[in-house]
Amino acid sequence: MGSGNGSNPLVRIERGNGIAVITLSDPEKGNALSVGMAEALLRRVDDAANDSAIRSVLLTAEGRFFCVGGDVRSIGAAGEDVGALLDRITAPLHSAIEMLLYMDKPLVVAVNGPVAGGGLGLAAAGDIVLASDTAHFSMAYAGIGFSPDGAATWLLPRLIGLRRTQELAYTNRRLTSVEAATLGLVTRSVPNADLRCEAREMAEQLARGPLGAFAATRRLLLSSDCASPHAQMELEARSVRAQATGMEGLEGVSAFLEKRQPKFRVAAMPDEPADGPIGN
Description:
The chain has 280 residues and is α/β, with parallel strands linked by helices. The chain has two domains: 11-207, 2-enoyl-CoA Hydratase, Chain A, domain 1 (Alpha-Beta Complex); 211-257. It is built from eleven helices and nine strands. It has helices spanning 35-49, 72-77, 82-102, 118-124, 152-160, 162-171, 177-183, 195-207, 211-223, 229-244, 247-257, and strands at 11-16, 19-24, 56-61, 107-111, 115-116, 128-132, 136-138, 175-176, 188-190. A six-stranded mixed β-sheet has the order 1-2-3-4-6-9, sandwiched between helices. A three-stranded mixed β-sheet has the order 5-7-8. Strand 1 (11-16) and strand 2 (19-24) form a beta hairpin. The longest helix has 21 residues, at 82-102. The chain is globular and about 65 Å long.
């Protein structure tokens, strides 16, 4: 396990009440994406994605920044080995983002501060993205002569459109938290003091929801840009039929007709976290 200072992990995970909270934890370096950070992130995401007790994931960061992007000092010091170094960063980072996008559980992202470069893809990958009013967003790549990574060129055109993405990529224009919400890069901007509480409440709400339906919805949304309307509706028809005949659909309809709240969690979850309290 990579570490920040002494034995402190670069990425923490805390589990409790069906939620996994993954926290980038190298605040002194702005949670920069070093090799160690990217590898630790992948391990933690894999832990959460493959834990059957986890029903939703909350991704956030410690300190003033959410993620400043790549560790430019390390990149600059790599000299002729910079290509190999970038491979060692992007391979686990991209695997982690892909897992976050395709896992069968919803993802909430709490953006606690400024975001740049590869951190932008991490922030944008959430199903629900809450951004502190102290946060701001920039692609930053052009400033050091790089092209984007971290799924930014796939996520941003889908979220805010090609024209806006081109402007951000070529000019490095910085978006405030409110602007990011207005454009659709994040779900909403919230006061910094309320961020952790609202993000946790959202993750808990999703953890109580129909996990199978959420997973099916995620798959449908990911396929929607490359399928024809006919093909997408075929996928929708098969998916809704499977949900309607499954335990979640049967419970949901019964609860609606009986005018009660549905109980989608088929197994009792522990009340106490396995690895300590959630959040800070």
